[in-house]
Hints:
Elements: H1 3-17, H2 19-40, H3 42-45, H4 54-83, H5 85-93, H6 98-138, H7 151-178, H8 181-185, H9 199-221, H10 225-255, H11 258-261, H12 266-315, E1 320-324, H13 332-341, E2 344-354, H14 359-367, E3 378-381, H15 382-392, E4 403-408, H16 413-417, E5 423-425, E6 428-436, E7 452-456, H17 458-461, E8 466-475, H18 481-494, E9 502-505, H19 506-544, H20 547-559, H21 564-580, H22 584-598, H23 612-642
Parallel strand pairs: 3-7, 4-6
Antiparallel strand pairs: 1-8, 1-9, 2-3, 2-8, 4-7, 5-6
Amino acid sequence: MTYFKLSLRNARRQARDYLVYFATIVMVAALIYAFNGLIFSREIQSLSQQMRTLPMMIVMASIVVIGIISWLVSYTINFMLERRSRELGLYVLIGLENRQVAQLFFLENIVVGGCALVLGILLGSLFYQILRAIVLTLFGVAYTFSFSFSLPVVGLTLLCFALIYFFAQLKSRKRIRSMKIHDLIYFDRQNEGMVIQTGKKRRRVFTLSLVLGFVGTILLMLGDVLLGLIGAGCIIAFLYSFFLSFASGVPAYFEKRPWQKYRGQTLLIFRALTAKLATMGVVMATIALLFTATLISEGCGLIFRGLFYGRARENSCFDIMIGISDLQQDHGDYLEYIRDNIPVQSQYQYAVYRGESAQVRDYLMENTTYYAYHDCDLVMAYSDYASLRRMLGYPEITLEPGQYLIHCRTYLEKLLEKYTQFIPLDGQTLIPGGVHCEPLGQYGWDVNGSDYILVVPDVLAEHCPVKHYLYVAMTAEPLSESQYDDLRNIRRSRAQNHDYDDIIVRSQEERDAATWTAMMVFPLYYLALVLTMTSATILTIQLLSESGRYQRQFRLLQKLGMDRQEMAGALRKQFTVYYAMPAIPPLLIGIPFIWHMSRIPEPGILVGTSGPAAIIGVAVGLYLLIYLIYILLAYTSLKRNVLSE
């Protein structure tokens, strides 16, 4: 058999024996190719001026991905070297030099990586179309399938894989070239050394790890940058100290509670688990850390998406809204440009007034999280309010004499419905007449009240001092990015001696939300996918490599009288605990962290399907979904190998 044929045969066997690893590398190649496609897509970058930053964001994410996948490939190659060390030692015995064996092993992995790359590029073309469809949908652009093959994209993907395999192969190549025959043949008998040597120290570290985990999670939730960094350090220390000391911490627990130790199959399950963790504590801790990063990445991605679209939703009630706080100015410059360049279907100009008190504002500040932008309650004339409702197609609302209405954002509705106090205005007292919460452009400064506004009779409003003037319009078609820039240029020319006018354009708000979603959420989920697949692959490879040992163990149990149903139950429990170990700490850390992060944005933005509970549910669901796919594949294979007739 020739040198090349031997490498090819071994590569085929490697792909078969480590199918989960091979499939993961194919998926990673597909993701890298798809996201590289976004880097070179002029169509995507032309959607918005800010989208030109997208390539930089993806490149930064890709650098992290290359590092993660290099670790996966390096770990798997070293793991295969350990498992096949006797075979490689035999090659040296029959006359091959270490250099040739190292080259043979190198070629095998290059063949496997090359095949994965080819399949990944083919699959990546489909993934790119999916990403392209999502981006175009975000911007409201019709998607049409168009197959594309880009040499720069292929070249960049090839470069990424070359870097991954170059760094991954260095260690194994150097090790094989320097090892003696004896070292190669007995290399598979070496275990991961104990970082903490004595059982007493490990038990102390186990207790300390639990304290570090609790303290770190609390510090992460405080919101302070310095304390957050300290908390992150505590979390990392917790994960590594927990898994490195688990092999002694749990036995110490059972030694004090022998009645639990010998209950059912507890001894069998935890003996196998502690034996496994004694040899792969560092790896298990690293996987738990990656899972924590996965969950936080997914949660932050959902928070960012909810934040961008929540702000756009609150801002984009009218097609155009321009607020002027300088009472010496009017809307003349804007109106002239709009008349000449933008087809308007309806428009309206009006004033927002200052009330005589701040009692509603104070009520909100006492009873909920409310950011006070003004030192008094703002009011609006009823005729202006009715005109705005007609523009937006809302039902007509009647204001009875002696009453006032409250129009607010949704998150304040229930609280303000309980507000029954009268308000003084121009020597009269008004009683509550109802609360309404349809979108009315109330997110910002010079808008229709900051989160709420009081609607009062015209004769009373006109006696109040003007806070700012507003112009709103509904247009025949969405404003382009250049038209929005023109309005901003007018604002700059007017803002030499006073504050900027507020300009809110619905189409631009939607473009900004889509742009920031693509630039922030896409890279975060890119990382989350790679992190999850990497972690699950290493766990699965480690478990399936022990199929022979499990098979011998359960054959012995069968001889001792355990029936097949009991063995299947014991296997399921061992399997469940093994996969749950690195998954539970990230949930205990990630869920409080995401909950805290989702409470940071201003009130009323993350609500409904973007509320904290929904974000946590979706993030955990996505995290577990991909993990469960690997778990099911591993369990099916392990059960078939271990409990076969």
